[in-house]
Design brief:
single chain, 98 residues, mainly alpha, two-stranded antiparallel ribbon, 4 helices, 2 strands, 6% strand
């Protein structure tokens, strides 16, 4: 397990997950692209992102936090994760490397 405290590392993990799991490594996505508006994430995709945040980044996401504004872009996801890092009492996120 690796502790993550760097926003750039969080950004890279989220970006890489989206490219690998939703674009199937056939394309790329800009950090400010609307993932929902462009059809990259649908309702099932948002749930998959929640699982990614919870399992890979050891972050707890409540039902009330599953909002389009938190999941609409890589930038939005990074802002959400870093805000959670500051409010959930942890000094950093722990990832489970595969």
């Amino acid at each position: 397990m690796t502790e993550i405290t760097d926003t750039a590392v969080v950004r890279q993990q989220i970006h890489d997950y989206i490219v690998a799991n939703f674009l199937f490594d056939t394309g790329d996505v800009k950090d400010d692209t609307s993932l929902i508006g462009q059809g990259v994430l649908d309702s099932t995709g948002v749930l998959e992102m929640v699982l990614f945040l919870e399992e890979r980044l050891s972050l707890s996401v409540s039902d009330e936090e599953v909002l389009p504004e938190h999941f609409d872009s890589v930038d939005a996801l990074v802002a959400f994760v870093t805000a959670k890092m500051g409010t959930d009492g942890s000094s950093g996120l722990v990832t489970h490397e595969t």
